Amino acid sequence: MQSPAHIRPEGLPGSAPDTDHPSIDDLLARARTRLDRLTPEDAARELADGALLVDVRSDMARRAEGEIPGSLVMDRNVLEWRLDPCSTWRIEEAADHSLRAVIVCSQGYMSSMAAAGLHDLGLLRATDIIGGYEAWRAAGLPMVPGGTMPGSYVAAAPSPISLDPGGQRMLVDGAPVALTPLEFRLLTALLRGNGRVIPREDLRTGLGEWDGSRSRSVDLHIHRIRRKLGPRAAALLTTERGVGFRLRAAPAPADGH
């Protein structure tokens, strides 16, 4: 039996194209006129400055090609629902239409169409990377092995700690650990920091107001997260005295003094 790809219905391949409708190349070119597309180097600078870099490649592609540290892995079929500030299913970062979202796919084709679709939702600062992930890799920019769960940020190095957004829980060496909404929110911010120190005040502001919480103390919730992590993983969540907190991919080096 022939597969659908081998069946040629009347009026399809073999007949003259219908010039009354735009081709996919026309639509792609039209989409790109709306975008201030970025080189990989520009995208890396914007990522460091706080832009949201969203990787919409398939799990298979990311495992084969690698991932960008600090990027948010997201299934393409939920992109608009997650980034639309008016959506019930939006992510926390999509607080308003000023969001700077940089979309990346393998070669920069699907990402252009996706970014233009975000413009239709009023996200006029959305754009993509010229040449996609392949151009990022060719530029010698940072990469790590793939395998990050959709909905999670890519760590700068393999870490025993990851998040399961669907279950609102963390995974410690693959084992699920329940979190309260406040704890999940804090750990999300720390993971997104990619090993950088997150000021205590930034974390406190990010908590917002939550029903049922008796305390907004960041230190208290960090203490509770550490207890749930267990001794080995808890060593990765460090307090930077007088500044804030850091979630490392590997334990801090021992003080040689």
CATH fold assignment of the largest domain: Oxidized Rhodanese, domain 1
CATH architecture designation of the largest domain: 3-Layer(aba) Sandwich
CATH class of the largest domain: Alpha Beta
Number of strands: 10
Short description:
With 257 residues, this protein is of the alpha/beta class. The protein contains ten helices and ten strands. The chain has helices at residues 24-32, 40-48, 59-65, 79-83, 110-120, 132-138, 181-192, 200-207, 218-229, 231-234, and strands spanning 52-55, 72-73, 101-104, 127-128, 161-164, 169-172, 175-178, 198-199, 237-240, 244-247.
Overview of this structure, please?
It is a single chain. The chain has helices at 24-32, 40-48, 59-65, 79-83, 110-120, 132-138, 181-192, 200-207, 218-229, 231-234; strands at residues 52-55, 72-73, 101-104, 127-128, 161-164, 169-172, 175-178, 198-199, 237-240, 244-247. By secondary structure, the chain is an alpha/beta fold. The protein has a four-stranded parallel sheet with strand order 2-1-3-4, with helices on both faces. A three-stranded antiparallel sheet has the order 5-6-7, covered by helices on one side. Strands 8-10-9 form a three-stranded antiparallel sheet. Strand 9 (237-240) and strand 10 (244-247) form a beta hairpin. Helix 7 (181-192) crosses helix 9.
What topology does this entry show?
Blueprint: H1 24-32, H2 40-48, E1 52-55, H3 59-65, E2 72-73, H4 79-83, E3 101-104, H5 110-120, E4 127-128, H6 132-138, E5 161-164, E6 169-172, E7 175-178, H7 181-192, E8 198-199, H8 200-207, H9 218-229, H10 231-234, E9 237-240, E10 244-247
Parallel strand pairs: 1-2, 1-3, 3-4
Antiparallel strand pairs: 5-6, 6-7, 8-10, 9-10
Helix pairs in contact: 1-5, 7-9
